[in-house]
Amino acid sequence: MATKGFVLYLLAGFSVAVLSVFLISDHHSYKINHLPHRSSPNSVTHDSDEKTWPELEFDGRIVLATIIGFLGSAFGTVGGVGGGGIFVPMLTLIVGFDTKSAAALSKCMIMGASASSFWYNLRVQHPCREVPILDYDLALLFQPMLMLGITLGVALSVVFPYWLITVLIIILFLGTSSRSFFRGIEMWKEESILKKEMAKPRETFANSRGELLIDTYEPLIPREEKTAMEIFTFNLRWKKLMLLVAVWAAFLVLQIIKNDLVVCSTWYWVLTVAQFPATLAVFGYECVKLYKESKKRKSLGNTESVCEASIEWTVPHLIFCALCGILGGTVGGLLGSGGGFILGPLLLEIGVIPQVASATATFVMMFSSSLSVVEFYLLNRFPIPYALYLMSVSILAGFWGQFFVRKLVTFLKRASLIVFILSAVIFASAVTMGVIGIEKSITMIQNHEFMGFLEFCSSQ
């Protein structure tokens, strides 16, 4: 019921925001030969916007940006959301980059943090099952739709007015952060009850039939201890990893070819449409697999969940996951993030435990963010020295963030800490992106700029 209410909240909020464009925009002030300045932080198109690239000097601004970037990467990867909503404002307000270059550097930071988190998680054992900590099936389910959504988000960033993007981001982030926060509270209460039960002294007693009983809070057969290399090889599934890489490479080739074509030309639209069957093929393959496994287990009376998700893989659930994957990618394209702001909360929503949700979300973001980094590099959208420096900061942050938080979770026996971190990062992103967006929208109003939808072909 709570999920339906959340979906209705998003649909109502998005609908009101989009419809308000027609009431706010003043069509008479639009001049074809004087298009408004597009300050969207995410468009990967050729434009004549002036680039603002400060020199890399280790002064107070760089030190402050380094601290914020380190903390944002550390907590962002632990929560499985990346941190793009924090990086973009930090790079524009503190360092002084233009918004498009800031978005490109944000992708570099997300890629670095996600890659280091992936490397760290390969050495982490699943907390309660003999399965990899990375759920490859869920990754294959969401990665294609996420990448397709990023393509749509980049296109919409050219058409949507900046103020509308700001409103949509605030609506989405406040909804997902509050939803994650309340889920964290529920998990905290459940963990508190479990800890009280575990603290009771072990008892041995007999039932009414004289049978000997013992409590079974701990497994009678302890888990086999594995070496670091055994855990690494167990978590690394080459066949599924290569399939994910193949999907990534297919999208990369299409985007590289598209960048050399005239926008809205015949071949441009052919390649754009070609992304849909490729995406649906991989997604459909994984859907059929999950559906058959779920149906087979149910027919055998096996209550064990398929993947880490606790939901049944029915057609409505699979369609819901597809729509959420596209929505997450679209938000990533609009914002300049990796799509984790949707994927992280979504994995928790379908019943994935926090440790696996965090590891899987960052794993998927590694592909989506690296795809954008390659595109931005080909368009010369970021300075290489800054990118290398910020990536190195994020790589260290991603590793040590995972290390300290997972040690803390193990010590306190509270996986809900990961959910609270996720909620906090999303809320902080809503505040920072909201402040930036409101400020720029006020400037556009003062300059009497066009506040409605733009034409896709003529706006690039």
Summarize the structure in words.
By secondary structure, this protein is mostly helical. The chain has one domain. Helix content is 70%, strand content 1%. It contains 14 helices and two strands. A two-stranded antiparallel sheet has the order 1-2. The longest helix has 38 residues. About 9% of the residues have low confidence. This is Sulfite exporter TauE/SafE family protein. It comes from Lactuca saligna. Belongs to the 4-toluene sulfonate uptake permease (TSUP) (TC 2.A.102) family. Keywords: Membrane, Transmembrane, Transmembrane helix. It is found in: Membrane.
Strand content: under 5%
- Work out the helix count: 14
Question: End-to-end span in angstroms?
Answer: 43 Å
Sheet having the most strands: 2 strands, antiparallel
Instruction: Flag low-confidence runs.
Output: 27-48, 203-221
Reading the helices and strands in chain order gives: HHHHHHEEHHHHHHHH
Oligomer: single chain
Task: Give a concise summary.
The chain is mainly alpha-helical.
Keywords:
460 residues; mainly alpha; two-stranded antiparallel sheet; 14 helices; globular
Q: Which secondary structure elements does this structure contain, and how are they paired or packed?
A:
Blueprint: H1 2-24, H2 60-79, H3 84-95, H4 99-121, H5 136-159, H6 162-199, E1 204-206, E2 212-214, H7 228-235, H8 238-259, H9 266-299, H10 315-335, H11 340-349, H12 354-378, H13 384-412, H14 416-446
Antiparallel strand pairs: 1-2
